[in-house]
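Journal club prep — side note

Before the paper discussion, L.F. wants everyone to see what a predicted structure for a comparable chain looks like in token form. Sequence:
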Amino acid sequence: MPDSIAQLGQHLQAVWHAEYLNVLVASAILVMILLHKLDEGRQLLRSALLFVALIALLVVTGLLTSMADMTNTASILDSIAVLLAGVLLIRLCGLVLFRVAMPAAGLQPPRILEDILIVIGYIGWGMVQLRYAGLNLTSLVTTSAVLTAIIAFAMQDTLGNILGGLSLQLDKSVSIGDWIKVDDVSGRVIEVHWRHTAVRTRNGEIVVLPNSLLMKGKFTIVGGDGVPQWRRWVHFRVSNTIPPQRVIDAVERALGLCHIPLMSNDPAPSCVAMEFGEGQIHYAVRYWLRDPLVDDPTDSAVRVHVYAALQRQGYTLGSPVLAVNLTTESSERDAKKRDAELALRQRTLKKIEMFRALSDEELAQLASGLTYAPFARGDVITRQGDIAHWLYILISGEADIWYEASGQDRRHLTTLPSGHIFGEMGLMTGEPRRATVTARTDAECYRLEKSAFERIIHSRPELAEEFAHMLTERNQQLVVVQQGTSAQSPAQQKAQLLANIRKFFRLDNGH
């Protein structure tokens, strides 16, 4: 009996190592840290317990085989148990280092780097065990060099994917949570593995992209920490009979006032005219989207608001060119539109002081001779020194009046709001423009030419004196700016202007 106990002790000593206890204590401490700090701590605890159970099973099996005089088998089982104990400890140390210690220090290493370093630790531990087993590592490395080259050549695509995944995470080209576009694939990055990157599309599909494809090709990041907003384009077309500034103003005003979820107001949405087509103008609304997941629903909401804004202004989306060419409006509808436009022009003229002395018939006559003239912001409407026998009635927008002294030196005189006129000197006296007028905003004007006004002043020559009086008052500021002081009295200026009006319209030649 004592001999049996002694033999059992000898066999147990052969398969049990004091380091097992150290590994068990260290593993318990590391698992408790992971269990406290990580959400997946319970899963790691189960894995560690399975490892410990497997090591215990190998130790017991090694003991039994040693007692059965199966020395070689017992030695192999003992080496495997020691190897697994080291693997368990390396794995737990790696998890604590990369997922607890480094994040606590403010570092966020890529997961693939964690995996690679832990695998290198496994390989190093395995080589140490082979060295203790009596294997000559020098001859092993020399012999395996050729095999390594052959394997690397055969697995170059796989190695390319592995190195690609490592590079992507080390330089943070792609992070989990980013939205990317690769060819026709668009979605959120959910995983970056050794061989591939997994992308979940908006349809719920998971697309597997080889890492080498991302390294060799071009991809676009449309959302994520580095790209908080993504600019979207919504295209539409409107008939070219509608001035672009009206369409742009209506759309931008509507989108600026409405609330569309996930559409950013900084920068504000903008509308641009893209190109002119056959009977249509191509427009695009550009807005910034805060979440790429809802791109199509947000585009749809923008289209709804654009359509409503156009409808409120009486504009319709552009029809196919063939439909435009084949569809004609009735003569009655044309007549109603003309009558409405003439009535609007007549009401506009009646509000202007210069034309208040005219009768309704004369106003109607002038209204029929007006020409619609739109200007974009920054346009030069009239240039100082030019000769043009017409005036402008500003019906919307604002215009700046400038006096150009010499060269590039010019002085801002005033800003005219809608409802004002300018260029009346050119219409009434024919003299060159005394100032430059530019569109401060998008502006719409009516142009009244001499030919439309000439018939009225010939039929009522007495109007010349009233116009001379009004022009004298309007001319005072400009004369002071040009000459520093008025060289003539108001009466002298009025007399001079009256003479110029009579001469320009030939009122003294039998009329």
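L.F.'s comment for the group: Residues 23 and 436 are 91 Å apart (CA to CA). Keep this in mind when we get to the figures.
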